[in-house]
Specification:
By secondary structure, the protein is α/β, with parallel strands linked by helices. It folds into three domains: 167 residues, D-Maltodextrin-Binding Protein, domain 2 (3-Layer(aba) Sandwich), CATH 3.40.190.10; 95 residues, D-Maltodextrin-Binding Protein, domain 2 (3-Layer(aba) Sandwich), CATH 3.40.190.10; 207 residues, Orthogonal Bundle (MetI-like fold), CATH 1.10.3720.10. 54% of the residues lie in helices and 11% in strands. A five-stranded mixed sheet has the order 9-8-10-7-11, sandwiched between helices. It starts with 7 loop residues before the first helix and ends in a 5-residue tail after the last helix.
Length: 516
């Protein structure tokens, strides 16, 4: 019989080859992991997002009060992968932040990374570094049921279209020259405004449109998807180790089908998500979106002084108009309330007191939201300007009433007696003797309230009025020129308030008892 060779050497060699083929962490990965282990001494990984109108990304489950959402599930899986990779019992911890302020919170180190529908764009990449994308989105146009005028985005050009301020949808509309764009702080308000017929259409990311309109009466989606982009998790520019570790986790979750499982669970799957497998970096995503969108992108470098200064001046005009109209309402109502408190019958005095205590006790922001968003549910629809003027007028009237009341009481009683001795009626005495003196006393405190109202008008941004502070926020977050645009905004506020103070002091001197 011929001599048979033992199979063991062959098997041993095969085993060596198989062992060599097993992927092992590179030396660089091991060094990175070693550095990351010191990053989480409390074994907590903090991530930032916004639950205020944050569905389906992250929001509070009304049944249990737990944080849920497709990004919540994804972050849990990413942190679980990091824990396995680092050999630590890591746990995720959510940090609530206003969406438009998330980049600032990241820079302040209030959390380790962002996962909140943060769009991978050239502009955002100037302040943060992104992981590979985990979801591909586009902009979806939504209109009311029965709407026949709008079949595509171009049909909205002469109409009012709502979107989320400082978002890709807002940028797209601005780039294409839409002049009647209304930006909101949250993503639920645009759809409420659509139902209330204050706007004609809403343009927002597909996940937002699906969650807020699918299987809900009153809406329909129209037109082709436009403005493709991708969401990525964002870390600080000096945190390349964490970015690389999250990249590894997302790549593994993509290979195992976990990302698809999460997206399908939340009914957000589109066929474009299959492209994620080959989009392994932010740069690859930007190339893909440039091809998909026809390279329709902008950069913050286009925002020069000649571009943003006129926009700030226009917004300053809105602030001035809103302040003067609201203060006129407040002073008128305040005087009526003060007179009712001082000279009305007991029931009238009680009602006047209740007015003062009520409107001094509730937040102005709550009052504005109620007037604008709450009243339509009972059939009363106010424009944003009407709600703003009424809200500020009612609120500040409570304070002006107390200023008037104390100033009237400060007029010596002898003034009343002298006027009566001259045969004046009480009404004439109040109008020609008491009130002029009281108004001089009230002028200083009222001027302070007037200046305060200039700044408080920033609250009207919640009801879509673009005044000076809101315009600053939009321009600064679009151009990333926070200091430059902020300095000009501050100068405009000073230009509005300082002359008012000089005018008040001039009138006080002119009307003083010793003036000749």
């Amino acid at each position: 019989m011929p001599h048979q060779r033992s199979p063991w050497p062959v098997l041993f060699a095969a085993a060596l080859l198989m062992t060599a083929a097993i992927p092992r962490p590179a030396a660089a990965d091991e060094a990175r992991n070693a550095r990351l282990r010191g990053r989480f001494p409390d074994n907590v990984v903090r991530w930032g997002g916004d639950t205020e109108g944050g569905a389906p990304y992250q929001f509070m489950d009304p049944a249990k009060g737990d944080l849920v959402g497709f990004e919540v599930d994804l972050v849990d899986s990413v942190v679980a992968h990091l824990a396995k990779q680092l050999g630590l019992p890591l746990k995720p911890r959510f940090v609530q932040y206003e969406w438009v302020s998330l980049p600032q919170g990241l820079d302040k180190r209030d959390f380790d990374f962002i996962a909140s529908g943060m769009e991978i764009t050239d502009r955002n990449a100037e302040k943060m570094i992104f992981t590979r994308p985990y979801y591909l989105f586009a902009q979806q146009l939504t209109v009311r049921d029965g709407e026949s005028r709008i079949r595509s985005l171009d049909d909205v050009r002469p109409l009012r279209v709502a979107t989320l301020a400082s978002s890709s949808a807002y940028d797209l509309l601005e780039r294409r020259g839409f002049g009647n764009v209304v930006g909101y702080e949250g993503q639920i308000e645009p759809y409420q405004e659509l139902l209330n017929e204050r706007v004609d259409a809403v343009l927002l990311d597909v996940p937002i449109a699906i969650y807020n309109t699918a299987d809900k009466p009153g809406f329909k989606t129209v037109g082709a998807l436009e403005g493709w982009g991708g969401y990525g998790m964002a870390v600080r520019p000096d945190d390349a180790d964490l970015r690389a570790a999250i990249d590894d986790a997302l790549a593994e979750l993509g290979r195992t089908g976990r990302i698809e499982q999460v997206v399908r669970k939340w009914k957000l799957w589109t066929e474009e998500q299959r492209e994620l497998a080959k989009l392994d970096s932010p740069q690859a995503l930007l190339q893909w979106t440039a091809q998909k969108n026809g390279d329709d992108r902008t950069s913050g470098s286009e925002w020069t002084f000649s571009v943003y200064a006129p926009l700030l001046l226009k917004a300053a005009g809105v602030t001035v108009g809103l302040t003067f109209l609201s203060m006129a309402v407040a002073m008128t109502i305040g005087l009526i309330v003060a007179v009712c408190r001082l000279y009305g019958a007991p029931p009238i005095r009680w009602l006047a007191l209740a007015y003062v205590e009520f409107f001094r006790g509730i937040p102005l922001l709550l009052l504005l939201a109620f007037l604008y968003y709450g009243l339509p549910s009972v059939g009363i629809t106010l424009s944003a300007w009407q709600a703003a003027i009424i809200g500020f007028g009612l609120n500040y009237a409570a304070f002006e009433a107390e200023i008037y009341r104390s100033s009237i009481l400060a007029v010596p009683r002898g003034q009343w007696e002298a006027a009566q001795a001259l045969g004046m009626t009480e009404t004439t005495t109040f109008r020609r003797v008491v009130f002029p003196q009281a108004f001089r006393t009230a002028l200083g405190p009222m001027t302070n309230d007037f200046v305060a109202m200039f700044k408080d008008t920033s609250l009207v941004s919640v009801i879509s009025v673009v005044e000076l502070t809101k315009q600053y926020q939009i321009l600064a977050r679009t151009s990333l020129k926070f200091v430059e645009i902020g300095a000009l905004t501050a100068l405009l506020y000073l230009a509005m308030s300082v002359p008012l103070g000089y005018l008040a002091r001039y009138l006080e001197d002119r009307w003083s008892a010793g003036h000749k």
